[in-house]
Amino acid sequence: MNRQPTPEKLRIYLESLVVSGQLSPGDRLPTLRQLAAQFGLTVSTARRVLLGLCAEGMFSMRHGAGIFVNERANETAANGEQFLTVVNWYTETQLNYCGCATAGLIAEAEQAGWQVRLHSVSYAFKVSDPVFFPSSIWDGRAVILIGTYDRCRMKNFIPRKPCVAIEMHDSWNGALSTVTVDPFVSANLAVEFFRERGVRRVTVVETDTPAMQCRAELFRLAWSRHGGDCRTVLEYGDLPLALPEADEGIFFAGGTSHEYHVLALRKQFGSRADFLPNLLSVDGKSLLNPYYQPVNTIYIDWRQAAEAAFTEAVRRVSFPGTAARRIYLEPKLHLAAKRETGKKLVADFL
């Protein structure tokens, strides 16, 4: 359900009209009464929204004439330049899903005649810590976030342009379109993976990221339908440093947790922990990073995710006020057998 406050919907709608170029400098807006009726607001509430936008320089109210788009309200619309902002922890195209998605976005944008401006914004490692975004991210026609920023408090992130988030689950009450692994398909793939190996007990490593919490919850529900035992830990550090028994499996909702746990096991048990067949992760990070351990993983093509995100951003720019969407990409299961497998796939995958 879209629970975004109606005044905020009006604000985003009006900004989108300017950002998309459907309203040009000098154009007059509908009357306050018309806008209020369209969004189910009182006239005074609609006026408050417009006064805020006027204070930011986007519009101006002319007594007796109406509300008009200012000459410099959106320079990208005035000079015809099309660019989107990509916010990423990494600005380089490194061997991780963030870098892979960024490279895909740059390629998609160039092909469509758009420019990309990159911003590097670090995560907050504690959930209680805020993440601050520079105001310049709103200079483009759309914003694309890459990474799990919704695990933190995005303190000054108030969507003013069409926004799409890759590998996020929280849509911010309908303000963000999201693109990520289909958690329903992932859950079913994981259940079949464990059942085929005779696993009866599964430990779920969830983490505090909304997307991974969703994956973990749907797997638990799917696993419970088959009568299997299941327990959950929040972080890989809560797992015992022990090699799993034959009927025991571990489901990692994210690949980083799997990597750290296997490294700890290798330190403890040496080559006996080189490859553990009853461990499974979601996101395919091990297929992108040659330094990751070999792993069974459920993955998507992160360049396909970039293509979906770009298409969604263009849609929302082209049709201002349209609702955000949650876009799930169908994943596949990759079974690793030895260390070289993961390294070989890096070139194939990219």
Structural class assignment: alpha/beta
Helix fraction, binned, reads 25-40%
Whole-angstrom Rg: 23 Å
Q: What's the main sheet like?
A: 6 strands, parallel
Q: What is the H/E string?
A: HHHEEHEHEEEEEEHEHEEHEEHEEH
Overall morphology: elongated
Strand line-up in the sheet with most strands: 4-3-6-8-9-15
Distance between the termini: 36 Å
**Tally of alpha and pi helices:** 10
Average of per-residue pLDDT values: 85
DSSP strand content: 15-25%
Give the low-confidence spans: 75-80, 339-350
| DSSP E strands, number | 16
Could you write a compact summary of the structure shown?
The protein is an alpha/beta fold and 350 residues long. It has ten helices and 16 strands.
Give a written overview of the molecule.
It is a single chain. This protein has 350 residues and is of the alpha/beta class. It contains ten helices and 16 strands. The chain has helices at 6-19, 32-39, 43-55, 75-79, 97-112, 183-196, 210-224, 255-269, 302-318, 339-349; strands at 59-62, 66-69, 83-88, 115-120, 130-131, 142-146, 153-154, 163-166, 176-181, 201-205, 229-233, 248-252, 279-282, 296-299, 326-329, 332-334. The strands form four sheets. The chain has a six-stranded parallel sheet. A six-stranded mixed sheet has the order 11-10-12-13-14-16. Strands 1-2 form a two-stranded antiparallel ribbon. Helix 8 (255-269) links the parallel strand 12 (248-252) and strand 13. The longest helix has 17 residues, at 302-318.
Tell me the layout of helices and strands:
Elements: H1 6-19, H2 32-39, H3 43-55, E1 59-62, E2 66-69, H4 75-79, E3 83-88, H5 97-112, E4 115-120, E5 130-131, E6 142-146, E7 153-154, E8 163-166, E9 176-181, H6 183-196, E10 201-205, H7 210-224, E11 229-233, E12 248-252, H8 255-269, E13 279-282, E14 296-299, H9 302-318, E15 326-329, E16 332-334, H10 339-349
Parallel strand pairs: 3-4, 3-6, 5-7, 6-8, 8-9, 9-15, 10-11, 10-12, 12-13, 13-14
Antiparallel strand pairs: 1-2, 14-16
